[in-house]
Write a structure and sequence with these properties.
By secondary structure, the chain is α+β, with helices and mostly antiparallel strands. The chain folds into three domains: 141 residues, Beta-Lactamase (2-Layer Sandwich); 87 residues, Signal transduction histidine kinase, dimerisation/phosphotransfer (DHp) domain (Helix Hairpins), CATH 1.10.287; 145 residues, Heat Shock Protein 90. The protein has ten helices and 14 strands. The strands form four sheets. Strands 4-3-7-6-5 form a five-stranded antiparallel β-sheet. It has a five-stranded mixed β-sheet with strand order 9-11-12-14-13, covered by helices on one side. A hairpin with a 2-residue loop joins strand 1 and strand 2. Helix 1 packs antiparallel against helix 4, helix 4 packs parallel to helix 5 and helix 7 runs parallel beside helix 8. The longest helix has 57 residues. It is found in: Cell membrane.
Length: 477
């Protein structure tokens, strides 16, 4: 399983469990909280009504008093109210009164007159000077039919002479409970969805950074020249990427020096041996050389010295380019204009050879003009070196999708099969047909490095119709 999916699933599980736990706690608290608030209101209501009924109760005119008449009118009222979106067309409050023995002597509904309520908790506890309340089922078969009862004492002086109880069905509060629970679930699901989206974005962002680091490490392990990735608002990944980049540079530097010292030592052996042999002959005691031989040996020393200097110069140039991991002075480059400049510069060396091309299409790329010109010049110089007198070199510039291709096809002998895979190796070179001499073997290596810095590539192959074709591919902006 991918790292990002594991992070997301872990986050999803954590958020889901936390959301379920919080929602269950809040849901379980809604109903008790609403009922506690209702009980608090019923306490005040019971005590207020107990004070209002006290004069009629003590005077013994309970049925004919103003209180009884007001309670009857209250039960018949239609509030025509809309409480937080819930319509109310009747009252739900029931009021009953018991005497000091717990016998019901008044009931707003008339259903319990004369009954003994002395054992109900609301009456029983209140007659003993305690807080009396109970919640009972109006219908034993319906668990939702509970009714809350809260009582208050009716006193004469300090003596408790009766009890007034107010009762309200809990189902009257159920619409508010249901609405609160629905809002809670909707809000919870919305927050869960937002949390999951945030988690998915975070997982993608974190895994994207790790994937970039992984890609960078793989590219380095394959020897590719890639820039160190950077990460916005992630100091830890940036520090890790910088550390990997530093480690790569140090390892590459160590291996680079070892390889170059080995290659340079191998390539300098031949000219040094020639110089040493010529010098020993020139300074051999008792040996008298003719003037022509003297000039020949000193000329050989100068030639080998120049070759060594060329090797060192090109090797330093290649080392500088290979140590770079990107372009420095990049700018828009007109490839058509650049090709014309390179061809004009090499025309004096062409002699009887012809450099032919069709009109160039317009092509602009982003890069370093000097390096691009040097790379194309190296390829065209090679083509000239291996093209016979009166031969032709065809150059073509084509554009496809988001890239361009430069093709250089020269007439001449095909490349031997054993050499095809080694042409871009440092110091590997084939003898030129005209002179039989080899080059430094660094030109094609330089060309490949220059083009790779631009995100491009170069290849050499034998043409089906004869000769050799070089292909350069470069990305366009």
């Amino acid at each position: 399983m991918r790292f990002s999916l594991r992070i997301f699933f872990g986050y999803f599980l954590l958020v889901s469990l936390l959301a379920a736990y919080v929602l269950s706690i809040v849901r379980d608290e809604i109903k008790p909280a609403v009922r506690q608030s209702s009980e608090e209101v019923l306490v005040d209501t019971a005590n207020l009504l107990a004070e209002l009924i006290q004069p009629d109760f003590v005077a013994g005119r309970l049925d004919a008093g103003r209180f009884a008449k007001a309670i009857k009118l209250f039960a018949e009222r239609n509030p025509q109210a809309k409480v937080w979106g819930v319509p109310r067309d009747k009252t739900f409050l029931r009021v009953y009164v018991t005497d000091a023995q717990g016998k019901v002597i008044m009931d707003s509904t008339g259903q319990a007159l004369g009954q003994d309520y002395s054992q109900w908790r609301d009456v029983y506890l209140t007659l003993r000077g305690q807080y009396g309340a109970r919640s009972s089922l109006a219908d034993p078969k319906n668990e939702l039919s509970t009714v809350m009862h809260v009582a208050a004492p009716i006193t004469k002086g300090k003596e408790i002479v009766g009890v007034l109880t107010v009762a309200r069905p809990n189902w009257a509060m159920q619409p508010f409970i249901d609405r609160s629970e629905n809002k809670l679930w909707r809000a919870g699901l919305l927050l869960l969805a937002i949390g999951l989206v945030i988690g998915a974005v975070f997982s993608w962002w974190l895994s994207r950074g790790i994937n970039k680091l992984t890609g960078f490490a793989l590219a380095v392990s394959e020897g590719q020249s890639v820039t160190v990735p950077s990460f916005t608002a992630n100091r830890e990944l940036t520090t890790l990427a910088t550390a990997l980049g530093t480690m790569r540079e140090r390892l590459e530097g160590k291996a680079y020096i070892e390889n170059y010292v080995h290659d340079l030592t191998h390539e300098l052996k031949s000219p040094l041996a020639g110089i040493r042999g010529a010098a020993e002959i020139l300074f051999e005691e008792g040996l008298t050389l003719k003037e022509n031989d003297h000039h020949r040996f000193t000329g050989h020393i100068r030639q080998e010295t120049a070759r060594m200097q060329q090797i060192v110069d090109r090797l330093l140039q290649l080392a500088t380019l290979e140590a770079r991991h990107g372009l420095k002075d990049a700018e828009p480059v007109d490839i058509a204009k650049l090709l014309d400049e390179v061809i004009n510069a090499l025309c004096p060396q062409a002699g009887t050879r012809q450099i032919l091309h069709a009109p160039w299409p317009g092509a602009i790329i982003h890069g370093e003009a000097f390096l691009l010109a040097q790379a194309i010049r190296n390829l065209l110089q090679n083509a000239l070196d291996f093209t016979p007198e009166h031969g032709q070199i065809h150059i073509e510039l084509t554009i496809a999708a988001q890239s361009l291709q430069i093709t250089i096809h020269n007439q001449g002998e095909p490349i031997p099969d054993y050499a095809l895979s080694r042409l871009f190796e440092r110091f590997y070179s084939l003898p030129r047909p005209a002179t039989g001499q080899k080059s430094t073997g660094l030109g094609l290596a330089l060309t490949r490095t220059m083009l790779e810095l631009h995100g491009g590539s170069v290849s050499l192959a034998n043409h089906t119709e004869g000769g050799v074709v070089a292909r350069v591919c470069l990305p366009m902006d």
